[in-house]
C-alpha cells in the first residue's frame, strides 16, 4: 500500500509560492534544501522482521517494517515477489509501522523497498530481500482443452488437484485464474463442482480470436495449509463462427458460417421415445468410423429397437453418444420424418461434407424437438444453455453481482510484467 510523503516546511516564510517548472528562490539564507538531496541509506533507521542469513520466512507470519528513528518516519513500502505480485499492506498514520495485510506467498523470493524521511524531511531508502518457505500442500491447476484452434463455442476448463469448498477460498482461486482474449470480451468462471471450473464469455467467442489462460495462484494461500501450485498456461485460437442449427420438426439442418447460410441439409432426428435433446451443444470430436450398438444406450439385444451398425463420418456432440453422422439406411425419411434413436442422421455425402467443415468447439444446436434440453455440464458442453444471469451466479467472485474485489486484491494476483 502506497502513501504520499508528508510535506514539511523547511524554512519559514510569510508567503510560500510553488512554481512548477521554475527555479525556487529561498526565502532567507543560502542553505541547501534537504528535499533535493540524494536519498540516504536508511538501514539504521528501520527494522523488519524478515529472516536472517539463509533462513526462510514463514509465509503465515505477517511482514512488518518499523521506524527506529524517533523523529523520522516511513513514507512508503512496496513488497513484490519474484513473479511481480505486490503484497498488500498498511502504513500507520504516524508512519512508524507498516505491516502486510494478506499472507505472503510460499516458496517465492521477495524484494522489499522502503522509503523514509528524517526530521528535516530528507528522503532515505532501503532495499531488502528474503525467501519464503515452500508449501508442502499445493493446489495444482490443469487448464483445458489442449492448445490449438477451436470453434467459438469452446469453453475453457480448469481442473483442481484438490476440492475447494469454502466461498472465500473459491474467490481466492477464481481471482487468480486469468482468461484474456483478443478481441476482449466479458466472461466469467462457473464452479461446476469443488474441483472443476468452466469459463465462457457472455456470448460466443469472437471468430479468429486469441484466448490466453494463465494462473497467478502459485504460492498464494488458498486455505489453512493449502497453497496454490504451478499451472501451465494455455493459448487457444478460434476459427470461423460455424453454427449448425437442426430444426427437428422441419427435419432440416441449416449450417452458417459467420452468420451466412452455407448449406441446408435434410436430416432425421430422434423418434418418439428417443427424441433428440434440444439446446446448444458443442462438438466434442470427430471419428471417421464408429460401431454403434443399442446396448450402449440400454436397449436389450433382440428388442425391436436393437441395432448394431457401422457408422461413418461421426461428429460427436454429447458424452452419452449423440452424433451427427451418415445414415444411409434412413435416407427415405431424411427431410420428412424422425426415425433415429437420438442422433442426427443424414446422407453419406452430406455427413462427409459436415465432417470436413466442423471442428471441435463448433456450435451444434437443436430446436423443435420433443426432447429435454441439453444439460449444462454432465453430458459434454451444454454451458450455453444457461443464461448469462444464471452463469454469473456460479462465480465465487460475482455471484451474479458486480465484482467487488479491492485494488489490493487485484494487485496481489497480477504480475507486473503482464
- Shape descriptor reads elongated
Q: How would a crystallographer describe the biggest sheet?
A: 5 strands, mixed
Count of strand segments: 28
Return the CATH class of the largest domain. Answer: Mainly Beta
Quote the distance from N terminus to C terminus. Answer: 20 Å
CATH names the topology of the largest domain as L,D-transpeptidase catalytic domain-like
CATH architecture of the largest domain: Beta Barrel
- Helix segment tally: 4
Please state how the strands of the largest beta sheet are arranged side by side: 22-21-20-28-23
Gyration radius, in Å: 31 Å
> Low-confidence stretches at least 5 residues in length (pLDDT < 50)?
1-32, 400-418
Report the CATH superfamily of the largest domain. Answer: L,D-transpeptidase catalytic domain-like
Percent of sequence in beta strands: 25-35%
Helix and strand content put the structural class at mainly beta
Share of residues in helices = under 10%
Q: How many independent structural domains?
A: 3
Average of pLDDT: 88
Amino acid at each position: 500500500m502506497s502513501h504520499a510523503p508528508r510535506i514539511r516546511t523547511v524554512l519559514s516564510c510569510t508567503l510560500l509560492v510553488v512554481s512548477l517548472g521554475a527555479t525556487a528562490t529561498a526565502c532567507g539564507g543560502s542553505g541547501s534544501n534537504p528535499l533535493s538531496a540524494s536519498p540516504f541509506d536508511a538501514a539504521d533507521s528501520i527494522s523488519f522482521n524478515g529472516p536472517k542469513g539463509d533462513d526462510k520466512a514463514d509465509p503465515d507470519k505477517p511482514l512488518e517494517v518499523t521506524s527506529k528513528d524517533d523523529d523520522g518516519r516511513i513514507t512508503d513500502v512496496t513488497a513484490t515477489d519474484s513473479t511481480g505480485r505486490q503484497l498488500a499492506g498498511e502504513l500507520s498514520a504516524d508512519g512508524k509501522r507498516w505491516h502486510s495485510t494478506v499472507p505472503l506467498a510460499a516458496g517465492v523470493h521477495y524484494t522489499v523497498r522502503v522509503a523514509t524521511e528524517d526530521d528535516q524531511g530528507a528522503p532515505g531508502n532501503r532495499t531488502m530481500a528474503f525467501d519464503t518457505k515452500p508449501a508442502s500442500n499445493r493446489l495444482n491447476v490443469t487448464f483445458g482443452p489442449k492448445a490449438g484452434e477451436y470453434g467459438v463455442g469452446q469453453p475453457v476448463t480448469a481442473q483442481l488437484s484438490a476440492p475447494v469448498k469454502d466461498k472465500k477460498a473459491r474467490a481466492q482461486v477464481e481471482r487468480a485464474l486469468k482468461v484474456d482474449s483478443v478481441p476482449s470480451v466479458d466472461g466469467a468462471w462457473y464452479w461446476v463442482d469443488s474441483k472443476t471450473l468452466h469459463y465462457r464469455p457472455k456470448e460466443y467467442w469472437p471468430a479468429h480470436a486469441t484466448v490466453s489462460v494463465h494462473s497467478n495462484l502459485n504460492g498464494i494461500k488458498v486455505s489453512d495449509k493449502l497453497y496454490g501450485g504451478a499451472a501451465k498456461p494455455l493459448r487457444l485460437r478460434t476459427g470461423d463462427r460455424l453454427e449448425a442449427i437442426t430444426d427437428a420438426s422441419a427435419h432440416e439442418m441449416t449450417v452458417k458460417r459467420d452468420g451466412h447460410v452455407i448449406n441446408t441439409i435434410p436430416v432425421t432426428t430422434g423418434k418418439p421415445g428417443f427424441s433428440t435433446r434440444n439446446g446448444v451443444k458443442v462438438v466434442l470430436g470427430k471419428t471417421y468410423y464408429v460401431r454403434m450398438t443399442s446396448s450402449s444406450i440400454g436397449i436389450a439385444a433382440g428388442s425391436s429397437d436393437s441395432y448394431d451398425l457401422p457408422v461413418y463420418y461421426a461428429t460427436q456432440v454429447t458424452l452419452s453418444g449423440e452424433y451427427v453422422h451418415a445414415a444411409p439406411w434412413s435416407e427415405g425419411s431424411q427431410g420428412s420424418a424422425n426415425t433415429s434413436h437420438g442422433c442426427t442422421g443424414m446422407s453419406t455425402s452430406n455427413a462427409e461434407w459436415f465432417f470436413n467443415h466442423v471442428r471441435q468447439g463448433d456450435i451444434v444446436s437443436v430446436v423443435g424437438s420433443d426432447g429435454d434440453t441439453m444439460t449444462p455440464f454432465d453430458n459434454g458442453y451444454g454451458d450455453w444453455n444457461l443464461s448469462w444471469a444464471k452463469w454469473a451466479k456460479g462465480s465465487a467472485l460475482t455471484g451474479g453481482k458486480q465484482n467487488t474485489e479491492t485494488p489490493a486484491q487485484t494487485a496481489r494476483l497480477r504480475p507486473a510484467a503482464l
